[in-house]
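User: I've been going back and forth on whether these two constructs are worth ordering. Before I decide, could you fold them both?

Assistant: Sure. I'll take them in the order you sent them. The first construct and its structure tokens:
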Amino acid sequence: MSNIDVVFLRMIKHLLRQMSTDCKLSTVGLIIIGNEILNGRVRESNVQLMCQHLRNWGILVSKVSIIPDELSIISNEVKDFSSKYEKVITTGGIGITPDDITYKAVANAFEDHLVLNPEFKSAITHFFGQTKPNSPVDLLATIPSKAKLYWPNMRNNVHKYPVVTVQNVVVYPGVPLIIERTFRFCKSLFVEEHNVTFHSKVIYVDLDEIKLAKYLEGFHQKLQKTVEFGSYPEFENNYYKTKITLDSTDESHVNKAFDQIQRELPSSHIVDYIENPCTLLPNSIFQLSQENTALGHKITKSISVLREALTKFGKNSIVLCFNGGKDCTAILHIYAGILKEINEGSTDIPVLKIDQDDGSFLELDRFFEHCKDTYNLKIYNFEGNMKKALEAFSLHNPQYKAAILGVRNSDPTSSNLEYFSQTDPGWPPLMRINPILHWSYENIWSFLRTLQVPYCSLYDKGYTSIGSRKNTVQNPKLKYIDENGATRYHPAFTLTDTEDERCGRL
């Protein structure tokens, strides 16, 4: 038995102990069907969404199985799951190609046969128009004879494409977009009158699991009879290192365990973590700007510069130069807040990403992808040095008249810049907008850390100024030897002498 199976069984037994006679714990098994998942050609993206919805509905997902497009394997798995769990969900293997055999496999599992369902055929006609007899499209409506059709009620409008159910098995296509759009409207397929409610709380700690080991073992021993206790390491989060989770069907047990852990853990290491700082925009940056501090005054000026730029040029004529560094990350967060304030936050933010010839860090690439999703970035990607990339960008995108830069006057060759500076002769004609021109190194880190804005994890590993892989190393001023004799580096925000910011550049 695998570790995952042990965890599931332990969780099921634990939750069953908590159940009262007036509520019922429903269990679901998920079967993901597709060779493309197993061979790595397609990323599976349905399980997390379905599990989140099911848990919110008070339903326990007991097992997830990923299997190939083979008739006997699918049939046997469906039959096995159907006998073990109150509901079974399959995804994938529905379509008109030879490897779409899920309906046939489900029919075999229940000693049934396939028929062309007239009601389903009518729905297909609505989507595809009238088709000829024996059209391949008819395969979509050729389902087990004992199947029933469920029509998701989407915002009080009955969806025109049904979900197929056979006994306790719910058959979904594998297309993530369909699952995303319809699954949340299928609650009544799974929820019974007396389903339980799961209660959860999370504690974030800035110590790793090794340093927390003595606490975690104690918590597990004390709490295992009343709550499901879990701890999860986080290696790239900027603000915590371990997440502790507490789950129970009894809210009072969760609250009691939460209070107990809060009392016993060192309070200085408990993090009041903000999961998504973007949801607090624009108020978070405006509140910080109103503080009578050096940082507050500089944020106010940056906001003023960006608002002036939007007035002069308009959002659709401004591009943000963004490489994932700390300075442009701070600007991105402020800019996103301003766009949200003027009701432009729902649209994408044009961003110019310049890939240097000598390569970037994988951590920087991962962070860039995070920002792309979080801030809804529209990426213009060009290679080469700054001038070459700007020339290519301007040639292909003449609608952009201004570029926001993460430049500070302490940067090389930047001491004579203004908040608005036209590019030099010989460069593409763009207005350079420099909203953090007079920010200091400390200002940048104070802003990011105060608002818990995510930043590239390299900065937590001792990098203070990031260029390419060939010209950037960890800052030697942050180097230290830990208690085990290993060489380590303090995070960038701890650098005390900011004159040493670029000591990691070669």
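The second construct, handled the same way:
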Amino acid sequence: ANYCMMTTTGFNLKLGPITCHAVNGDVTKLAISFKNNIVYIFSIPKSPTDKFRLLQELTNHVDEVTGIDWAPQTDKIATCSADKNAFVYAQENGQYKAQMTVLHSPRAVSCVKWSPFENKFAVGSGGKLVAVCDFDAKHEFW
């Protein structure tokens, strides 16, 4: 019998418990949050001897980040938080910049997911509500 053998490599970032994470489309970057309001973007090591390299910190949330999703084709990152907000980040000049979102959630937002066409995203909240957000080009916000 043929068995597929996979090797798993562990990395210790030594930054605390991971509450949410997402990987970009070509699996070269990792967005991760450690039970705080910051999303850290790291380059993913190509070999076990390489190290994670911090590329950027996204600091727009004021409370714990509860969800991250990375759109593989458009390279946009959607985040949500206990602060009742969601943000969309798009790359400009090699850095991720926050795009304005209008989300009127009465409770903490707990999860976020891009649509298959990556033109909309959904967020779920503690108020048992799901909001579907799309981009308003006229006013330039989600």
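Notes on the second construct follow. Confidence is low (pLDDT under 50) at residues 1-6. The longest strand covers residues 86-92.
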